[in-house]
From TrEMBL, chain A:
<dbReference type="GO" id="GO:0005886">
    <property type="term" value="C:plasma membrane"/>
</dbReference>
<feature type="compositionally biased region" description="Pro residues">
    <location>
        <begin position="285"/>
        <end position="294"/>
    </location>
</feature>
<feature type="region of interest" description="Disordered">
    <location>
        <begin position="267"/>
        <end position="295"/>
    </location>
</feature>
<dbReference type="InterPro" id="IPR003593">
    <property type="entry name" value="AAA+_ATPase"/>
</dbReference>
<dbReference type="GO" id="GO:0015833">
    <property type="term" value="P:peptide transport"/>
</dbReference>
<keyword id="KW-0997">Cell inner membrane</keyword>
<dbReference type="InterPro" id="IPR017871">
    <property type="entry name" value="ABC_transporter-like_CS"/>
</dbReference>
Automatic annotation (TrEMBL), chain B:
<feature type="transmembrane region" description="Helical">
    <location>
        <begin position="182"/>
        <end position="204"/>
    </location>
</feature>
<dbReference type="GO" id="GO:0071916">
    <property type="term" value="F:dipeptide transmembrane transporter activity"/>
</dbReference>
<dbReference type="GO" id="GO:0005886">
    <property type="term" value="C:plasma membrane"/>
</dbReference>
<keyword id="KW-0472">Membrane</keyword>
<keyword id="KW-0813">Transport</keyword>
<protein>
    <submittedName>
        <fullName>Peptide/nickel transport system permease protein</fullName>
    </submittedName>
</protein>
<keyword id="KW-1133">Transmembrane helix</keyword>
TrEMBL record, chain C:
<dbReference type="InterPro" id="IPR035906">
    <property type="entry name" value="MetI-like_sf"/>
</dbReference>
<comment type="similarity">
    <text>Belongs to the binding-protein-dependent transport system permease family.</text>
</comment>
<keyword id="KW-0813">Transport</keyword>
<dbReference type="InterPro" id="IPR050366">
    <property type="entry name" value="BP-dependent_transpt_permease"/>
</dbReference>
<dbReference type="Pfam" id="PF00528">
    <property type="entry name" value="BPD_transp_1"/>
</dbReference>
<dbReference type="InterPro" id="IPR025966">
    <property type="entry name" value="OppC_N"/>
</dbReference>
<dbReference type="GO" id="GO:0005886">
    <property type="term" value="C:plasma membrane"/>
</dbReference>
Amino acid sequence: MSATELYDRLPDRGGPAQPLLTVRGLKKYFPIRGGILGRTRAMVQAVDGVSFEVRKGETLGIVGESGCGKSTTARLAVGLIDRDEGDIIFDGDALGDTLSLRELRRGIQMVFQDSYASLNPRLTIEESVAFGARVQGLSDPMGRAHGLLARVGLDPARFAQRYPHELSGGQRQRVNIARALAMSPRLVVLDEAVSALDKSVEAQVLNLLSDLRAEFGLTYIFISHDLNVVRYISDRVLVMYLGEVVEVAPVAAIWARQAHPYTRSLFSAMPSMDPDNRTEEPPLTGDPPNPIDPPEGCRFHTRCPFAATLCGRKAPQLRKIGADGHLAACHLHDPTSGHPKAGKIA
Amino acid sequence: MFSYLLRRLILVLPVAFGVSVICFLLVQIAPGDPLTAIMPVDATAEEQAAMRAAYGLDKPLPVQYAIWVGNLAQGDMGRSIATGRPVAGEVFGAVQNSLLLAVSAAVIAFPIGIFLGFLAGYFRDSALDKAVTAVSIAGVSVPNYWLGIVLVIIFSVNLGWLPSMGAGPGGSRDWSWNWEHMRHLVLPAVTLAVVPIGIVSRTVRALSGDILSMDFVQALYAKGMTRFDVLIHVGRNAAATALSVMGLQLGYLLGGSILIETVFNWPGSGFLLSNAIFQRDLPLLQGTILVLALFFVAMNLIVDVAQAAIDPRIKRS
Amino acid sequence: MTLTEPLTSAPAPEARKGYWAGVAGRLARDPVSMLCLAVVAALILAAIFAPWLGLADPYKGSMIARLKPIGTPGHILGTDEQGRDMLARLIHGGRLTLFIGLMPVVFAFFIGSILGVVAGYVGGRLNTLIMRVVDVFFAFPSVLLAIAISGALGAGIVNSLVSLTIVFVPPITRVAEAVTSGVRSLDYIDAARATGASALTVIRVHVIGNVLSPIFVYATSLTSVCMILAAGLSFLGIGVRPPEPEWGLMLNTLRSAIYVDPWLSALPGVMIFVTSLCLNLLSDGVRSAMNVRD
C-alpha cells in the first residue's frame, strides 16, 4: 500500500496560514471530594487558562515539571477529559460549535507514555491497530493496519498476530504509533511517548516520528520532560508551570535566550555536555506549590530569584518579547509592569 | 477519630433508609391481599373499602411508607396478624434469645478458629496446616441445618446426652440461667459455631502466615527478641483484620441462625420468622427482618469504628 | 515497562494461548480438584439423565414399604416416610437442587456483571446510584435476605430462583465494579475512546474481555453457598413444594423419621454437603491454578 492509500487524511480547510489547532483560555479544575458528606472540598487547578496555537506541519513541544498540567492539557485537546472552560478550535471549527467530538477525534490522535498499558492485552496488535479505523468506518481496516505496521517497522507477517506482552517496549510503542495513524489524523499528540524507552530505542522511534511527519504531512504536539529530545524534534517550545503557560518560543530562540526565570531554571537543571559552559544558575529548589491552592499573582513568585512585591499581587500576562514570536509571562519583560528590575535582566 | 466516627454515622443513614425501604417493599411483593386473612368472607365492597382505609392501604405507596416509618420512629411496628400482639414486643423477645445463641456460638467459634488458624499459619504447609485447612473448608461447606440434625442424631437420639428441642425443659420458650437451660443451648450453639470456625481459621491462617513471612519479623528476630515477643507483635498486626472478620461473623450468626433455630425449635428470631412465613403474618415478617438487618448494620458500624481505633491507617482512606 | 530488546527477539505468538492451557494443566495436576470435578460432573450427569437410568419411580409411594432401612433389597438406600425409593429420589432430587443451587449464580453473574461494568465504566452519578443500592443489600446477611424475599413471595421454584438471584447480584456487582474501575483507568481505554468509538463499543471490545475472568472466578466461589441456601429454603418449606424430590425438602420431611431410622433421615444432607464441598474445593483449585490471591 502506498502512503496515499494508507492515509485518508481529512482535507485542509483554512489554508496554511490558519493554525491547525487553537486552544484559548482552556481551564480544568478537578474536584477533591471529602468531608462528611463527600462534598467538593477543594479544586485542583490542573489547567488554568491555557492558550496556544499549533501551526500546520510543525511540532510544538510542551515541557514542564511533572504535575504542571502537560498531560491534562493533552487529554483536554483530544477531548478525553471534558473542559470546564475555553475554546478548542480545529482548523477553524470550534469544538461544540461546528465540530463534534467525534469529528475532533478523527482529526487528533494520541500516543501515551506507558506502551504496555495503552494496548489491550487481550487483542492481537493488528486488532488493536484496526480498531479505530473500523470504528470510523474507514475502508479495509485490516489492510490499513498491516500497511501501517509495516510502515512503523514491524513486519505484519511476523507481528500482526502477536499480543502486546510478546513485544518489547519499543515495538509496542511502534504499534501505538501505528494505531494512532490508522485513524488518519492530522494532528498527533505524543504524551511522553518516548520517555519510557531506552536511549537507543528512543532515538529510533524519534527518527521514525520525524519520517512519518514528513511522509504523511502530520502535525505533532510533543510532550516531554526531556529538553534534549524536545529540542531535537520540535519547531517551537511551550513551557508550562502549575497549569499555566509561562513561555512560548521557537526552539532556536529559547535555547539562545530563556526569558522566564522558570524556564531558565528548568534549562539550567539540564546537565551540559560542554565543560566550558557549566551551569551557573542556581537550580530550582523545593517542590512546586500545591495546585489546590496556587500562589496569588505570578504562580512562580514563591520560587523565583527575581520576585518582587508586585509578583505576589498581580499575575503577569503572556506577551510578546521578541520579533520571532517569543512570548513570556513575566513582569521582568514588561517595562510598564512596575517591577523594579523590569527590562534590566536578560 | 471523632470526625471519622461522625462521618461513618452519617454514611449509615442512607443504608438504614434503604433497609427500611426494602423491608417495606417485602409486604408489597407478597402475592395476595394483605387483608385477606382478617377480612370477613362475606364483606361487602363498602366494608372492604372501609377496612382498607382503616389500615391506610388506600393511600399511595410513598404515603404508606411515610406513615410506616413515622410509626417505627415511635416504636410501633404494627400488630401481628396471627396473634394480634404488637410486633415490637414479639421481635425483641425473640431477638434476645437469638442474640444469646449467636454470642454463645461466637464464644465457642472465635477462640477455636483463632487457635486453629494460627497453628496452620505458623506451621505452614505442614500436615497440621493441611488438616486445619480441610476442617475449615468442611466448615464453610457444610449445610449447618443438616449438621444440626446429625448432632441431634448422635447426641440426643443415640447417646441421649443432650436435649434437642427448645430452650429449656419440655421445649420451654423461656430462657433462664440454670443448668437445665444451659444444656439446651449446647447443641444449637455448637452447630452454629461450625461455619465461623471455618471462616475465622481461614482468615487467621492467611493473616499470620503472611505476616510471619514479612521482613519486619526477621528484623525482630535479628534484634534478639524471643519467639514469644515476636508473636505478640504479629498478633497486634493481625488484630484489626481479624476483628473485622469476627465482628461481621457475629452479625451473620444472628441473621444466619434462622435455619438452626428451626432445627432445634429455639425460640429466637428465626423461629419467629418461620412462624410468620407460614401464617403469612407479613407485619411480623417485616418487623423481624427489619430488626435483624438494622442490627447487622449497627454491627458493621461498630466493626469499622473499632478497626479504625486499632489501625490508624484506616482513618486516612 | 522500560525493558526493551532489538526488533528481532520476541517470543513465539503461541505464548498467550498458553495461559488458559497452563491453567487447565495446573488444574489437571491437582488430584483434589480433579476428584471434585469428577463428583460434580457425575452428579450433574446423573441429574440430567435420571429418568433414563432405570431407577424406581421417585413419586410412587407405598404404605407398607415406609422407612425401609438402608440396604433393603430392591431399595439400596431404603425408602422415605411415604415408602418412596430413596436412591431414585436422591438422584432425581439432584435435578432441582442443582438447578436452583446453580442457576441463580449464573443469572446473577450476567446481571451483576452488566451493572458492575456499567457502574465502573461510566462512573459519576450512575456509579454512585448503583453502588449505593448495592450497599443497602449488603446490610442483609445473605441467609436473611434469601429467607425474607422467599418468605414474602411464598414457596415455588421460580420464587426461589428470583430470591437467590437477588441475593447474589450485589456481591457480583461489587466485584465487577472494582475490576472494571481498575481497567477503566488504563491508557488503552483512553486510546479506544480517542477513536470516537461509542461507550458500548469500547466496553464490548476492550473492557469485557479483561474483566470477565476475575468476575467469573469470584462467581464460582459463590456456587457452594447458593446450593446450601437453595436447599435451606426448601428445608424451611419456602422453596420447592412437595411432592417434588429435592434434597432440602427431603431433609425436612424425613425429620419425622429421626427416631425411627436416624441415618436414613440424614442422607439428603450428605448429598448437599458433598456437592457443596466439591464446589468449594473446585473453586479453590481454579483460583490457585489461575494464581488469584485471596
